[in-house]
Amino acid sequence: MTKYLKLLSLIIIFTVTIYYCIDIIQYKYNLMDIEDYDPISTLKVDENIITRSKYPFIDVHNHQFDMPLKDLTQLVQEMDSLNMAFMVNLSGFRGIYFDKSIQNINENYPNRFGLFINIDFEKIDDKDFGNNNTELIRNAVRDGAMGLKIYKSLGLDDKDKYGNRIKINDPRLKPIWEICGELNIPVLIHSGEPESFWKPKDKLNERWLELKQKPGRYRDPNKNPSFEEVLSEQHDMFRENQNTTFINAHLGWMGNDLDRLSEHLDNNDNVITEIGAVLAELGRQPRRARKFMIDYQDRILFGKDSYNMSEYYTYFRVLETDDEYFDYYRKRHGNWKIYGLKLPDSTLKKIYYKNALNLFPRLKENNIFNHLNE
Fold first, then answer.
1. Model confidence over 5-37: pLDDT tens digits?
2. CATH class assigned to 57-311+343-372
3. Taking a C-beta distance cutoff of 8 angstroms, is the pair 357, 114 a contact?
4. Is 347 in contact with 299 (CB distance < 8 Å)?
5. Are 301 and 359 spatial neighbours (Cβ–Cβ below 8 Å)?
6. Do residues 254 and 194 touch, judged by C-beta distance below 8 A?
7. How far apart are CA 357 and CA 372, in angstroms?
8. Where are the domains of the chain?
């Protein structure tokens, strides 16, 4: 035993020595990984940290994967502190998972949470695919579902039984979009990825850090449909289903080209969008983004995506203040500084809650939201 303790001590001493030597070498030769570089700005400008939104808001893009068994009390307390009036959990899935999630909501906080249904596209070759899924959606809406969420796997990874990629505008999916239009529920659809994920992983790629930390997000052009091909399929599907309302998630991955996104919205009256996980795109172009948010204030929803309480503070700061040159909360999403848009109160109210109230009749009819509809 003593022998092993001595060996362990030697290993620890050796390891500490190696790290110490590395630190000395790094300091002496000014070596540093970009992931470690986190300078403190010397710029002296206003700093307004906002931990509670100016107006109550409805988060239409959230994921609570443990909803069937989750004790919602702590989450509701956090929502109250943020001024979040209502959260839409897009990860409702189907079957027993969906049933248990709805039950948890209804028994505890029916006026604070909503749920979207999800379907399995890889069963597209089943003879009754269309009928089965229209019935699934119809029953889910009857039981309380507020919409249908489409994950990015459709158009990128989902395959039919022959191994062929299922295109977003595949005609076999037509019954899915039609039943959502008939039932007057929106389809929140995430198609594609940031365009940089298709580009070479080199020094010219502004999302290089994310591809280094999350290598599975790289889309090899030799193995995947192109960025433009995926968007083209999605936009074609929108045009072919005018009676259905679509929420094009993440600014449709056009947040870096707001002229293109503006044209997209102009050409598709049945499409709206949301800002989940793309705040860094808006924050780096404050003048253009502010104009876009005001021009299209009736077509934009508040969304966050993954839940982290403190990250909402950055959303509030971008939307409500004119602060300059501050950090986005996730370096790999935007390795740049961002700026506040200081949106007018009338625009803020629409993005925070009014547009969502108009989209979801259930919320508008619910007495608890009467005070929001001012």
1. 665 565 666 565 665 555 665 556 566 777 788
2. alpha beta
3. no
4. no
5. yes
6. no
7. 9
8. 57-311+343-372
The residue ranges of the chain whose pLDDT is under 70 are 1-31, 366-374
Query: Concatenated DSSP letters for 165-229?
Result: BPPTT-GGGHHHHHHHHHHT--EEE--S--GGGGS-SSTT-TTHHHHHH-GGG---TTTS--HHH
The helix/strand/coil state of 92 is coil
Largest CA distance in the chain: 77
Tokens standing for residue 274: 């949301």
DSSP characters for 18-73?
HHHHHHHHHHHTT---TTT--PPP---------SS-SS-EEEEEE--TTTTT---H
25, two tokens: 């070498």
The 3 state secondary structure assigned to 271-303 is EEEECCCCHHHHHCCHHHHHHHHHHCCCCEECC
- pLDDT of 16: 56
Residue at 329: amino acid letter: Y
Task: Judge whether 344 and 294 are in contact, CB under 8 Å.
Answer: yes
Name the residue among 155, 89, 100 with its Cα closest to residue 122: 155
- CB neighbours of 209 closer than 8 A, spacing ≥ 6? 34, 35, 331, 332, 335
Report angle CA 237, 240, 243 to the nearest 5 degrees: 110
End-to-end CA, the chain: 74
**What is the token pair recorded at 21?**
């030597």
Kindly report the backbone phi and psi dihedral angles of residue 62, in degrees, each rounded to the nearest multiple of 5, phi listed first. -140, 160
